[in-house]
Write a structure and sequence with these properties.
mainly alpha; 18 helices
Length: about 290
């Protein structure tokens, strides 16, 4: 699938992905598209979408400084401007883009390590990937193709409701820290905080925890975030989501041992994760290179 032009006025499909072969650019583009579709799906009204579209140059500065691709955000807002917000579509998009993001991450956390990919292919569980709000077929096919192995037969797995809850909390915080960059106006942020039960209703319909997002807006109602603060939190919660998924997608006895012997801290840092935190959280002190 190819990414649409990403320029003002161009229609952007909901299944567009980054065409870049550079992993960090892929992740930046697809993470931006995930955020953008959540943003338009969570808008309180069509008028709000139209206002974002008309005033985009005035609200995008922090996003650009945080490293998000503002041309893609603009394209999504423009594409959605002619219809009411659609939180159900946004939730579907979240699964799509989250799967693309995790796929790129897992293919690049142990570069050149074919044994790692073979192990991931054989031990990842489709039911557990789905429980982690991912498209299991997409992830397994990409990893197994890279390893040169067929996708294994699905094995029943238990899963954990706590994992799903934690991923949703981390995803909500990630969205909140990205969304609060929409304005440096304390008046706007204060209004959004006070009227969040109305303005944020469509976020809850996407499976996001509105209370987590509201708290971020309210905490910054009188002190807008700086780009450096926003970027730090984006890395933190992106890493949190990756860790939660990584440790929950297999019940194979040898999974964590193989995983931890293959993870490469430098490679993880190079794709926008906190590599040391991944290694420490997933593997403890015996972790990666």
């Amino acid at each position: 699938m190819a990414l649409a032009s990403g320029v003002h006025g161009g229609a952007l499909r909901r299944d567009s992905i980054s065409p870049s072969t550079d992993p960090l650019t892929q992740l930046t583009d697809n993470a931006t598209l995930l955020f953008a579709w959540q943003l338009v799906g969570g808008a309180p009204s069509q008028d709000f979408l139209h206002s974002m579209c008309a005033n985009f140059s005035g609200i995008s500065g922090t996003w650009a400084a945080e490293g998000l691709n503002t041309a893609l955000i603009r394209s999504v807002i423009d594409s959605a401007d002619g219809a009411p917000p659609d939180p159900a579509a946004a939730a579907s998009n979240a699964t799509f883009y989250s799967s693309e993001i995790f796929t790129t991450q897992i293919l690049n956390v142990a570069p050149g390590n074919t044994a790692f990919l073979k192990s991931m292919c054989s031990t990842m569980n489709a039911e557990l990937l789905s429980s982690a709000t991912l498209n299991a077929t997409r992830v397994q096919t990409a990893v197994c193709d890279a390893a040169g192995f067929p996708v294994p037969s699905s094995i029943p797995a238990g899963g954990s409701p706590e994992t799903e809850i934690q991923i949703a909390q981390d995803a909500s915080n990630l969205y909140g820290w990205e969304a609060v960059g929409i304005s440096n106006s304390t008046a706007f942020l204060s209004l959004y905080c006070k009227q969040f039960s109305t303005l944020g209703a469509n976020l809850g319909k996407q499976g996001l925890y509105a209370a987590e997002i509201q708290q971020i807006f309210c905490n910054h109602a009188s002190s807008p975030i700086t780009p450096a603060e926003g970027k730090q939190q984006i890395i933190y919660y992106s890493t949190s989501i990756f860790i939660q998924i990584l440790v929950s997608i297999s019940e194979d006895e040898g999974y964590l041992g193989t995983l931890c012997s293959g993870l490469n801290t430098t490679a993880m840092n190079n794709i926008g994760l906190d590599g040391q935190r991944v290694s420490s959280s997933a593997c403890g002190s015996s972790s990666s290179k």
